[in-house]
Amino acid sequence: MDRNTLVAAALGLLEGLTEFIPVSSTGHVLLAGYFLGFDSPGRAFEVLIQLGAIMAILGVYATRLWTIFASAPRDPRARRFIAAVLLAFLPAAVIGVLAHRVIKEILFETPVLIASMLILGGVVLLFVDRMATRPRYHAAEDFPLPMALGIGLIQTLAMIPGVSRSGATIVGALLLGANKRSAAEFSFFLSMPTMLGAFVYDLYKNRDILDVAAVGNIAVGFACAFVAAVIVVRWLLNYVSAHGYALFAWWRIIVGSVVLLALWVGR
After folding, report:
1. pTM for this entry
2. With 90 as the cut, is the pLDDT of residue 1 above it?
3. What is the dihedral sign for C-alpha 225, 229, 184, 139?
4. CA distance 72 to 77
5. CA angle 263-266-267, nearest 5°?
6. What sections of the protein cross the membrane (predicted)?
């Protein structure tokens, strides 16, 4: 097994471990790839391995998803929940298409920006986690449509690597009245159309530059991301219900600070 394949496996594990916790999986994978010298044509690897995390969440929530869609014809609550997730997905879909080139060619290639966003996002997450709020919603299925749209608008901030898609949606849900468990759960469900859309669009945009080696690395990263993500999804909800998000906030601040120091020393 060559070095690039080993690095691809390590980055896939990192993607799966960080995708659903609010620390920015893309930021972590980009920074790790930068320091490891990983070659990623068109930065497609970092986006396409997210399919492993998508498959993990689909597997963990397969029964619940089936129940929601099967009951939708006769259950207004199920229909509203499906509409809420799709409505929350819409802003990211629009911004992702319009700003794709800027995101991939500029933002993805700026380690200082990524590390700074990790720190800033950690501070925000720490502040929100400590806020004394009285949640109005304790189940993701009960989020009203305007609240879902608000979460979707906040999710667009995650187009900046280092912000974190899950972090943005969780913070948005908490500020709009969700408790910690339902905020994480809505983030899980919203990740499905968001990440699948990013996967399909990025695959289309990079279809002409992906060679056999790149596809092989993506396959390795996908498999490792799937395994790691299954473990994280099963663990995360119980953890945040009991302990909140402070651990992830401090992790972001520490990692971002270490990266900035390493970039400064290596100038």
Report:
1. 0.90
2. no
3. positive
4. 8
5. 90
6. 48-69, 81-100, 106-128, 149-174, 186-204, 216-237, 249-266
